[in-house]
Amino acid sequence: MNNKPPRYYPFAEIESKWQKIWKEKGLYNTDLDKTDKKLYCLTMYPYPSGEAMHIGHWYNYGPTDTWARLKRMQGYNVFEPMGYDAFGLPAENYAIEHGIHPAISTKKNIDYFRSQLGQIGTMIDWNSEFSTCDPDYYKWTQWIFIKLFEMGLAYRKKAPVNWCPQCNTVLANEQASNGRCERCESEVTRKDLTQWFFRITAYAERLLEGHDKLDWPDKTITMQRNWIGRSEGTEVTFIEEKTGERIPVFTTRADTLFGVTYMVLAPEHPFVEKLTADEYEQKVKDYQNKARKVTEIDRLSVVREKTGEFIGAYCVNPINGEKVPIWILSNQAYVEYGKLINSGEFTGLSSKEAIKKINSKLENIGLGKSTVSYRLRDWLISRQRYWGAPIPIVFCDKCGEVAVPEKDLPVLLPEINDFRPTHTGESPLARCHEFVNVKCPKCGNSAKRSTETMDTFVDSSWYFLRYVDPKYKDGPFNPERVKRWLPVDFYVGGAEHAVMHLMYARFITMCLHDMGYIHFNEPFLKLRHQGTITNKGAKISKSRGNVINPDSFIEKYGSDTFRIYLMFMGSYSEGGDWDDSGINGVARFMGRVYRLLEKHLDGIISVTSISYDNIESNDNDLKYYLNYTIKKVSSDIDTLDYNTAIAAMMEFLNLLYKRSESGDNSNLFYFSLLKYTQLIAPLAPHFAEEYWWRFGYNTSIFDSKWPEYDQKALITEKITVVAQVNGRLRGSFEVPKEITKEKLLEIVKMDEKVSKHIAGKKVVKEIFVPGKLINIVVK
Q: How do residues 562-571 score in pLDDT, each as one tens digit?
């Protein structure tokens, strides 16, 4: 055996070797007929809209795979699938930018993504793979649209919508945050277009009620609750003075009706055109044009300066009969509670008492009723772009809107060369006459297809159902497997999807449940978010020129080292700042593990048939730290606290090195190295698999049983030691009798009574008297 191994282990040879073996053996092909201790672990699938995966993808897939590997070693039948969110604006914009058809560029990008995912060394079951742009997939996306259409949950209407002039398409409210397109960051305007919507508002209350059964981050649930925006209040009917038109208005504060000074209509409200006086018409139109540049989200902002225009009409306040001017604007009402004044028969009542009594009066006179309102708006799903699933509707002059029969699905996306979007709001598909002109499925007369495509969030609203049998032909998903494997047990992805993908997937799941197709109404039982990786404190983006390419680091350091560094750089839920010097430290750590195992390989092999209970040893210190590390790493990986799990591994390695240097050749020492290899396996899968094989095992380390800790070994005799700084007493601490100097220093330096006396000073030496004291000398 080589007595002087290299500083870093030969990762390239090891990693390529095991990736090939895992693939050939189908080690991670899940037996989906075996449901005992099943665990469906899913990460949000990627957009293959660029030439390569970036570091953010790695940060999602690598650490989640570490969690999944722990669960496999704990006896779970883990299913870890992968697919590609291949339709939509990102992929189409990439194709336009590079002058290539999106079908070609998307396939090329998927092929490269697949090879990169292989480099990560995940437990992906490649039998589950699919792309949303495959006709075999989007056939069923179209099927879901038709089912919603049949239930009255998919409808078409003319409405003011968010329009991105750069992407030349409409955007849902959720995609136009802060008045900017989420894709290209262009300023969003408003357009009146006839569009397709999903009636998600019909499920507003159920979407709120469902939160109680979910193990999700509180922040995500709060974001959804705020987006749905449930309000209990009163629908008050005002009467327009001249026409007698009834104008319903919702308010949560009926007690303030006596203080109404003007009525507000949205600039695009149909009553505006009907009620505007001739002399105010031009000013109103000018204001409407100005308002089109402001998204609905920004209109509702409480910090934005309010503007408006009088339309020259008046309405009657139903509670007191007073005449009130009508304006178009978005106003901010008085919202403080108190006692009513100048409010007729309700004067002197508290706000809460008055709301009840005013509601009652309005109901009695037929000009109001108690009701519930929601901030949530229906989901706008049609897009004026090429690269998406065509909406399966035919327009017939005789029959109206007709759904394409299921036997004729999929409505295939035609292969056209001129797929660039138009500035007029017309889809590129409208230029393909062979696609547009068809016969009506009902009457057989000449008709025209819908030329719009679906929002890519429709594709991702049900993809998790398809994974369990992606080649299933008789429906969107295999009902028997869905019954055994769904809902998803553990879901990981970005928090930015809180009010988009995560809300839409819940809605579609509830719809499919109500139709009787699935047995559950929540898709993701447990959800966690990964944080954001920054580069020198800045958000990573192409425009900033600070994108981090994982490939170069894998080539230099290896996949396992790269994975560990991503998990070690900070809290997984918060992310961290990339630092090249940091990965060097992790590489040194892996090199130390490599050298220690190499040095003691024969000794480790000698204990592979020995159990912990059969090891006779009075070495309580090593027993304590072995079992403490097992407990700590098990718990921390399970809660995604990867950084502290790795820190515990590094600390235990330091102890093992000291034992090695002292000549320890006990069975307990070698057994600790064996268990150490299992503990590092989820963190560095290729490395651990290599040494498991070199230890003489003929099965994968990931089919071995995860180490269990001995609680008795963690019960230690406690003693009190004192901490001094320059010989002066600064505190006393109750610690295990066998505590090491390093561990004691760690505890002492975290205590404020000690830390304030050494902060900013140079430590000259640290004097440790076992069982008695620690003295830190500073100057």
A: 999 999 999 9
Question: How far apart, in whole angstroms, are the C-alpha atoms of residue 583 and residue 562?
Answer: 7
Q: In terms of Cα–Cα distance, which of 283, 339, 334 is closest to 307?
A: 283
Gap between the Cα atoms of 179 and 162, Å rounded? 9
Helix, strand counts (H, E) of the chain: 26, 27
Phi-psi label, residue 244: left if phi above 0, alpha if psi -120 to 50, beta otherwise: left
Instruction: Determine contact, residues 520/496, Cβ cutoff 8 Å.
Output: no
For the chain, how far is it from start to end, CA to CA, in angstroms?
47
Structure token pair of residue 767: 């004097």
Peptide bond into 487 cis (omega under 30): yes
Tell me the CB-side half-sphere exposure of residue 396, using CA atoms within 13 A.
18
Residue identified by tokens 């430590």 is 763
* Half-sphere CA count of 361, side-chain side, radius 13 A: 15
Read off the tokens for 117.
């995912």
| DSSP 8-state symbol, 397 | T
Q: What is the tens place of the pLDDT at every residue in 420-468? A: 887 777 899 999 999 999 999 999 999 999 999 999 999 999 999 999 9
Residues 357-378 have a mean pLDDT of: 94
Non-local CB neighbours of 611 within 8 Å, separated by 6+ positions: none
pTM of the predicted model, to two decimals?
0.87
Tokens 């003489």 belong to: 696
Handedness of CA 634, 639, 642, 645 (dihedral sign): negative
Q: What is the DSSP string of 175-191?
A: GSGGGB-TTT-PBPEEE
Answer yes or no: are the C-beta atoms of 264 and 330 closer than 8 Å.
yes
Kindly tell me the sign of the dihedral angle through the C-alpha atoms of 475, 456, 532, 566: positive
Using alpha carbons, select from 87, 570, 318 the residue that is nearest to residue 95: 87
List of residues 6+ apart from 750 with CB closer than 8 A: none
Encode pLDDT of 681-733 as tens digits: 999 999 999 999 999 999 999 999 999 999 999 987 789 999 999 999 999 99
- Sole residue written with tokens 């650490």: 63
Return the sign of the alpha-carbon dihedral for residues 636, 61, 183, 375: negative
C-beta of residue 588 within 8 angstroms of C-beta of residue 700? no
Q: Determine phi and psi for 16, rounding to 5 degrees.
A: -65, -35
